[in-house]
Design a protein that fits this description.
Layout lengths: L1 E6 L13 E8 L7 H14 L4 E5 L7 H4 L10 E2 L2 E2 L2 E3 L2 E5 L14 H13 L6 E7 L6 H9 L4 E6 L3 H16 L4 E6 L4 E2 L6 E2 L6 H8 L4 E4 L4 H8 L4 H4 L4 H23 L2 E6 L1
Parallel strand pairs: 2-8, 2-9, 3-7, 3-8, 9-10, 10-13
Antiparallel strand pairs: 1-14, 4-5, 6-7, 11-12
Helix pairs in contact: 1-9, 3-4
């Protein structure tokens, strides 16, 4: 066994200053379509249910979706006070999204540097108020915007969302590698659409395969934080603007999100106590 020390960048060191925000946690995926935004919204609401003051930043410049998921009426615009935008309040969350400052029918036809700059403005020019944790709903992929966020935002950690499908797992590995290269700790993996239970007969099957999240977690010495079902109720709740944690707080899936939130809270509390350097023992 060899002992190797790796330095994790201290939050806020040479980073974009975010007054009023204590911790930032990214929710990311290597590819689209794995349910990352649904996980982001429900995780943010579960954190709030655990007593945290929570902000949610929709960082998907090209396809913002949190306004719809959280039931924010179309055309809602943030107020501006002293040259800073006031976050939109939705289900007790402080929410900011490119969808609040552009038209829903107008695409952001921007190259990477322009999109990255716009995102930094959203972060820095928003009046965040006493936020315990900000959840950043990352754009899919590992390109310029994702890298800029990881490098310039003081992140306490990242949650990587994947499905058990092999093609999704390939991209999940890329997301983990990206965060490692910029010294953002990976809190763990959320395996979405893990199983499907038939609403008619109760038969359960792993449509997208099984064990994929565990194999990636073992490969990168991290853990599977939660396994979420492929369920009609999750989609319906999001489309109504009433995510499951709000519309069915006592349900099994909502309880899974609460347990996920507890693990995320534990991760940044531990990091705060541990300080800027963490020694990791590798076999």
């Amino acid at each position: 066994m060899t002992l190797r020390s790796r330095t994790i960048a201290a939050a806020g060191m040479n980073k974009l200053e975010l007054p009023g925000v204590a911790h930032v946690v990214a929710v990311a995926s290597g590819k689209g379509g794995v349910g990352k935004s649904t996980v982001s919204a429900n995780l943010a609401l579960a954190l709030a249910a655990e007593g945290q003051s929570v902000a949610l930043l929709d960082a998907d410049i090209y396809g913002p979706s949190q306004a719809l998921m959280l039931g924010v009426p179309e055309g809602t615009r943030p107020d501006v006070v002293d040259d800073k935008m006031v976050p939109i309040s939705a289900h007790g969350l402080q929410v900011m999204s490119m969808g609040f400052v552009t038209s829903a029918k107008t695409p952001a036809v921007w190259r990477g540097p322009m999109a990255s700059g716009a995102l930094q403005q959203l972060l820095a020019q928003t009046r965040w108020q006493d936020v315990d944790v900000m959840i950043v709903d990352y754009p899919p992929g590992t390109g310029d915007i994702q890298l800029t966020l990881a490098q310039q935002v003081p992140m306490s950690g990242a949650v990587v969302v994947t499905t058990p499908q092999d093609i999704a797992l390939l991209d999940a590995r890329k997301a983990i590698e990206m965060f490692r290269k910029v010294d953002v700790p990976v809190i763990g993996i959320v395996e979405n659409m893990s199983t499907h239970v038939c609403t008619e007969c109760g038969h359960e099957e792993s449509i997208f395969g099984a064990g994929g999240g565990d194999s990636v977690a073992a490969e990168y010495d991290t853990r599977v934080l939660a396994r979420l079902p492929l369920a009609l109720t999750v989609r319906e709740a999001s489309d109504r603007g009433q995510p499951l944690v709000v519309s069915d707080p006592g349900g099994t899936t909502s309880e899974t999100f609460r347990q996920l939130a507890q693990q995320v809270i534990a991760s940044y509390i531990y990091q705060s106590r541990a300080g800027p350097e963490i020694s990791i023992v590798d076999d």
